[in-house]
Design brief:
By secondary structure, the chain is of the alpha/beta class. 33% of the residues lie in helices and 17% in strands. It has 18 helices and 19 strands. It has a seven-stranded parallel β-sheet with strand order 7-13-12-11-8-9-10. Strands 2-1-3-4-6-5 form a six-stranded parallel β-sheet, with helices on both faces. A six-stranded parallel β-sheet has the order 15-14-16-17-19-18, with helices on both faces. α1 runs parallel beside α5 and α17 packs antiparallel against α18. The longest helix has 17 residues.
Length: 585
């Protein structure tokens, strides 16, 4: 007899069901209840699933152990709220120590109801260590961000069933007891698949569309990894998008920030089909957007940096690139086109005000050979990312925690290890004063050069494209923390540095900067460490950034962006795909 009910209208439940199917999971043992009604009714009316009933949850978990052990395939167990889930624990403990893929889906009205003496509300936020390899919470979906979160968390739990030998996993799924089961076609959800070094055959590399390798913060590349990445790019006509923390200095290195950052123009070259993502946190907001991302990392974690993760390769990076590379072809067309655009954009860069970006532009080609550059978060890093470093120079920045503290100390620590190498640091005043104690450390050597850009505040908050820009001078009171540390005193840092044994230099404008920079960047060893303090103005810093990001103007592109924003505000972000198609037409 055909049921009049189909799928629930609860989007979070739809996502879980869709991903169960995508991951090939079709056995379900359902225990009675109200809280899990939307899930159970939906799967019982989908012919993909085989559903068994078990009143006793303790028995249900052991039934799942038996099925999983017999078939080698995952089994889902579903229960309601109250103490039902507690009865899963003995069976899940068995599954944990036998590495059996049992997925416990417990249903709940939400964590916000915990602790308020509400009936049947069990706290599942903290699980024993040995009943689940992974525990995920799947909340109600209100927007696209919620949907993306549910997809990632559900994928994470399902992939854990087979990770590192396998074992049980847990999903705690919200419900509002929807009585709407009228959804006839199950909306798709984005499945993520994990691949390991032990697989005989990896998925084919897409041949349609452009491919980029996006590198976040990364240790300096070994020769083997550089060669593997270069051969991969040669095979697929790919390019490596870097910032100064990426550690890659190979043949296919592209710093595309000046092109990608344009606010009034969009390059046709900046539409890619696939992104190969390696490395960790990046301080680069200006990058090519790809339709899909493959993440490559030995940790095998689901890091959905760009919101379109589809595959994770749990293997050394060298192994991935070597497996996919060929020795029969050698392409550079895409890389060459990107580099040509960068050069054209640089040639159109206007004369900028005296600022962090202007200094980076005029210093980058003068950096001493073999030095190491350390950059502060965030204005200094972004400013220098617009310009490619000379060959043989590496850069570092504390993008892991992404805070202003510790940048100077990090550079000093590196300089202690290599006293024969020159270390150059570029830091804003808040970052410098936050970490100024290390400037007086007695181990600081004459291989240290500090460039302090002093504008008397956290100028990032006053830049024209920052969310706090609308506050104007009001931001200086507390948001931008202006007026501290001598309020741009011309004596404070000078006396401090000289008393600590530094050679002190200063500049208030372009002429003074040009008169001192050659001394600051001299490649020869000096008797003392150096500190160059440069004083800039808020308006100049903001205007320089605005000019750099608006080199090219395209009225049609600007109008399209305005239409998108207008329609998005009216119809909501979830309908933007329809809008995009309309705009194309």
């Amino acid at each position: 007899m055909e049921s009049k009910f189909k799928y629930t209208s609860e989007r979070n439940v739809q996502i879980v069901i869709s991903l169960l199917k995508a991951h090939g999971i079709h056995r379900v043992i359902a225990s009675p209840g109200t809280t899990n009604m939307t899930f159970v009714v939906s799967v019982e009316n989908d012919p993909w699933f085989q559903v068994w009933s078990s009143v006793d949850e303790r028995s249900a978990a052991y039934l799942a152990c038996g099925m999983a052990a017999e078939t080698g395939e995952p089994v889902v167990i579903s229960c309601t709220g109250a103490t039902a889930s507690r009865n899963y624990m003995p069976g899940l403990t068995e599954a944990y120590y036998r590495k059996l893929p049992v997925l416990a889906i417990t249903s709940t009205r939400g964590n916000h109801k915990i602790g308020h003496l509400i009936d049947q509300q069990i706290d599942r936020r903290s699980l024993p260590n040995d009943i689940a390899m992974e525990s995920a919470t799947i909340p109600m979906v209100k927007d696209k961000e919620d949907e993306r979160y549910c997809e990632i968390e559900a994928n994470k739990a399902m992939l854990a069933l087979k990770l590192n030998g396998g074992g049980p996993a847990h999903i705690n799924m919200y419900t509002k007891y929807s009585k709407d089961f009228s959804v006839k076609e199950l909306p798709a959800a984005h499945a993520i698949f994990r691949h390991t070094a032990f697989e005989d055959k990896l998925p084919d590399m897409p041949r349609n569309g452009k491919i980029i390798v996006s590198v976040g913060a990364h240790a300096n590349f070994s020769n083997r990894l550089t060669e593997a990445v270069d051969r991969f790019c040669a095979t697929y006509d790919a390019a490596v998008l870097c910032d100064h923390t990426s550690g890659y200095r190979g043949k296919y290195e592209v710093h595309y920030q000046l092109v990608c950052g344009q606010k009034q123009w969009h390059s046709p070259l900046s539409n890619a089909n696939l992104c190969i993502h390696i490395g960790e946190v990046s301080g680069n907001p200006f990058t090519i957007k790809a339709a899909h991302t493959w993440r490559v990392s030995p940790d095998g974690k689901l890091r959905d940096t760009f919101g379109n993760l589809r595959r994770v390769f749990m293997m050394p990076e060298e192994m991935f690139f070597e497996k996919y590379a060929s020795v029969k072809v050698s392409h550079t067309e895409y890389r060459d086109a990107l580099l040509e655009e960068v050069e054209v954009m640089k040639s159109k860069l206007p004369e900028l005000p005296f600022s962090n970006i202007w200094m980076a532009q005029h210093m980058v080609d003068k950096l001493p050979k073999g030095c190491e550059l350390h950059l502060g978060i965030y204005h200094s890093l972004r400013s220098w990312n617009f310009f490619r470093l000379p060959s043989g120079i590496q850069a570092k920045c504390n993008v892991g925690g992404f805070g202003i503290d510790g940048g100077v100390s990090t550079m000093m620590g590196a300089s202690f290890v290599h006293p024969e190498k020159l270390f150059i640091g570029v830091f804003g005043d808040l970052a410098f004063f936050y970490d100024m104690n290390v400037v007086g450390n007695r181990h600081v050597g004459n291989n240290v050069r500090l460039l302090l850009i002093n504008n008397g505040k956290g100028n990032e908050f006053r830049n024209y494209d920052h969310p706090c820009y609308f506050l104007g001078e009001e931001a200086d009171r507390f948001v931008a923390a202006a007026g501290h540390y001598g309020n741009k005193s011309h004596c404070l840092v000078k006396d401090y540095a000289i008393d600590l044994g530094y050679e002190y230099l200063s500049a208030n404008n372009k002429e003074e900067f040009n008169a001192t920079i050659d001394r600051f960047l001299t490649p020869e060893a000096t008797e003392k460490p150096m500190l160059l303090e440069v004083f800039t103005e808020t308006e100049d810093e903001s205007n320089a950034l605005e000019q750099a990001l608006n080199i090219i103007t395209d009225s049609k592109y600007v109008m399209k962006q305005k239409v998108k924003k207008f329609v998005k505000n009216i119809i909501g972000a979830e309908n933007m795909e329809v809008v995009k198609e309309f705009i194309k037409k």
